[in-house]
Amino acid sequence: MTIWVTHFLPILLTFPFVKSKHEIIYSVQEESENGTFIGDILADSGSSDLATSGGDIGVQLYEDQATGLFQVDGKTGKLTVAGRIDREAICPQRGGISSVASFSPGLIANSLSTCQIEFIAHIPPDNLINIAVTVEDINDHTPRFKTDSTNQLTSRTSGSSNIVYISEGVSVGYEVPINGATDEDAGSNGIQSYSLSIDDDDGTTFALRYVLPSELNLIVKKKLDYETKTAYRGQIISCDGGKPTPRCAVQNITIAITDINDNMPHFDKDLYTVRISEATPVSSVILSVSATDADSGELGRLTYRFGQTYDQNVGVFFGVNENTGEIWVKSPLDAKVMSHFKFPVTAQDGGTIPKTGSTMVQVDIDDVNNHAPWIEIKPINSPLYAKKPTKDGYIQLWIEENQPVGTQIGIILTGDKDVGPNGDVFCTLDDKDSSFRLRHSSSGRGRKMYSLQSKVQFDLESMNLNSPIRLQVECSDLGKPKLITKQSIQVNVIDVNEFPAFFTKVQSNVAVHIPEDTSPGSLVTKIQATDRDATPKMEFRLENDQGGLFIIDSSNGNVFTQEKFDREVQSQVHFSVRLLDSDISNSIIPQARSDLANVTVILDDVNDNSPVLESSRTFSVLENRAAYADLIGQLRAYDPDLGENGTVRFLTSNNLFDVNPVTGKIYSKAILDREAVAQYHLDIEITDLGRPVARRTIERISINVDDVNDNRPVWKMPEKLHREIYMRPVNNVIRSVDKNSGKEDIQSIGFVNISSQASEQAEIVKLVAIDADIDQNANISFSILSGKYYSESDFTLSKNNILNLVQVPQQINIKDYFKIDSLTWVLSAISDNGVIKPKSGLYEILLWASDNGQPPLHTDAIIFVYYECKWGFVASLFSVLNRGKTVILVCLVCLFICMVLCPVLIYLVRARRRSQECRERGIIACVDDERLRQEDLIRVGNAEVESWAKEQMFMTQQPYLNSFDNPEDMNGSILRYHTDQSAINFGQSPHMNYQECPPVVTVIAVSELF
């Protein structure tokens, strides 16, 4: 009877085809989501009345090759998708062309476009359903042309272009086989059409002929002329039949026309056919093809090859001799895998542009009875199937005693890889005890199903059955001679507990004493029980044995220690012993009955623990405290042993600290200084008074000395912020006039020389101070207390960094000139409208550095900041312009006029006073113009010198300018060249011995301090 049932899926209508109650065919689209409904096995097999009973019916799937793709609800029988279904992976198309897939059990492809997966559904108690699911293709692949390959016809594929060679002498209607595209999809989703487009051609020269599934030829439609056109170029378009929009691929094609003075090889047949047995040995020649070529010599030498092979299996099973055209078997053949081959063979001559002829070869494979039947046995509802499927070569099956006659215990699947009568299989059962029978369930799709059922009701107590029942299944085909396969089966009859085992009243509660140092493997006690069954098999199991301290002999109830014990952790151990009455040693049968006994093991104490430090291992104490003034901390230790074994003492050998051996209190024996040692480590020996041997523990504790604000900030040399700023230390300050300033004991942290180029920079130096304390006690802040001003002639700085202040300073509000950034600690000059307020001269700044301790400590220091002479007139002029001070501007203009009208007078006065000024300003010697060379100035960076001064002054030890090429070698001395155009610096000194800086005079001065 045939039944059609319609099920609605999200996209696809699926029609399960029920051939009989024992076979159902479903269909599902590939790439369907997990959980997609496929069919209702109970309803479609006529067992829907089972679903109305409620509860778990126990429907099960027995899958073969495609395991995990499907799942069934055991209660409702609904079949759904459980894994990714990829049709191209399950039924691959050889060479990308839809074809018959290789056969394997559970995977069937009936035609070029059909892919089926087969498995078995078991509906208890004994209904076996053969399920076949047809995987329907979706158009998820685009045709593609082969790239970077060479076929052996008249064409060659290179990259994305196909080159075809055709002689001009071919007749109209001549066909040339060419490379086509491949598509992994099947049926209408596979390649359905080709089209040809030739550039600059009206479509009258060439055409394509496509014969499904694989043949593609280029047809010559009109006479070709090599002298008129040597090549045609265009595109081949391949499209599949996908809906609603087909997928297409494009490949360029070049048709090269060759000269007629060449002959093409010709085969003597258009089709060669041969029929061979699948048992044909490898390397056997099965056929010879032959072609001729009218050319002679190398042009007439032919090479035979396989043509464009759409079925890649051809190259696996067959080979061709390139010289003789003999076709031979390359690998063993199997008629059930592939019984028919049809493929092209080409003959190619030896021309520069070779000519090729082709023919077709058809090979039919006849089956021989060379495969014995295969047998696969699957237990039904067996609790031990997953653990023990085989034993000593026997397939293990199980049946409980007292089950009714006809109980099904296994499924036997069989088949044969041969075809025809050679693949027709029948099975019989060899049962000496006549306890079981073999029942044929269904046949189809290359295999048969048998059900193994009981013929008697087993009772172990009455039958005295002490060993499993052994059977043998024998399956044979109908070949001549027939081939036979045998499989041994062992049926285990499972005992049902009819009489429960139990513990006696005395042994229901057991108490036993053992020392806590009892070694593993020692006997603790023996558990006894009673069972009134005829053949009792009792099994003892430990329960609630947390930690796995004990182990029990499951057969006799002897309990042994398995681990070491610790009374201090657990003084008593409680566990239970479960008594099982089962005929299966691992007792997983749900019907097994049991009894329970409670066991208490009391552990007697031994001294097996060392003291453990419980208190903190880190303590702290303030520095500078008197000895024994403060309790630093107290050690606490714990020993879980009893009596003297748990009494603890503390010992240490440290001389700075005192640890009370009984109380563990810690005191310092001396005054501690954190800046000397910030942390101490003490090794404490903690011992108990155990007998006969005391246990000891060594612990290391740390004592941190907490900081007290007992250190003042210490000033360091500041950090300069510009290259044009130079700093020198001040070793001593001599105040020749102001001797009562009271600042002789204040540290001088440096002499800062700011050249004229850096004179307009606001930031000067970054102040640096350190504090030996930590945290807030070392958090330093800076401020300016007071300051003084000295003109350029009021001080000198010697070579050994002694600053001599020769005049009384001018008292100024130093905070109007300088400030300190509270975040960056940068000392900066205060500016007004972009012009800094400090002028040329020396500033003595009294600084204050304080930490944030309670109470805070501070340290004063003095820094000297010297500003060199600037171009007073020009700078003042622009300053005045910026400030808008008209009166000062008029004065400056007058001063400028005086300087212009009186240059001679100024020169004479300066010349007269030069000698005296040199000595007053520390200049040792003066030299004339000839000692200063232009190339020396160029060497240090002046590219062009236009005018020269009338005097230059050098120190005696360094008379030449080239000795000052590197300003660092001059210890910070200055060489400044002034012209009427610009000023050029070559170095810097602590202070300059000139003030007016005339615009046309070159001054090169070296202080005697260097």
From TrEMBL:
Record-annotated Cadherin domain positions: 20-145, 158-267, 268-375, 399-502, 506-613, 613-715, 746-865
GO-annotated cellular components: plasma membrane
MF annotations from Gene Ontology: calcium ion binding
Topology relative to the membrane: Single-pass membrane protein
Keywords of the record: Calcium, Cell adhesion, Glycoprotein, Membrane, Repeat, Signal, Transmembrane, Transmembrane helix
Regions that span the bilayer: 887-909
Any one of the GO BP annotations: homophilic cell adhesion via plasma membrane adhesion molecules
PROSITE patterns named among the record's database cross-references: CADHERIN_1 (PS00232), CADHERIN_2 (PS50268)
Keyword set includes Repeat: yes
Keyword Cell membrane in record: no
Signal peptide segment: 1-20
Major site of localization recorded for this protein: membrane
InterPro entries, A to Z: Cadherin-like_dom (IPR002126), Cadherin-like_sf (IPR015919), Cadherin_CS (IPR020894), Cadherin_N (IPR013164), Protocadherin/Cadherin-CA (IPR050174)
Name of one Pfam family that matches: Cadherin_2
UniProt subcellular location: Membrane
Domain of life, source organism: Eukaryota
PANTHER family: CADHERIN 96CB, ISOFORM D-RELATED (PTHR24028:SF146), CADHERIN-87A (PTHR24028)
Protein's name according to its UniProt entry: Protocadherin-1
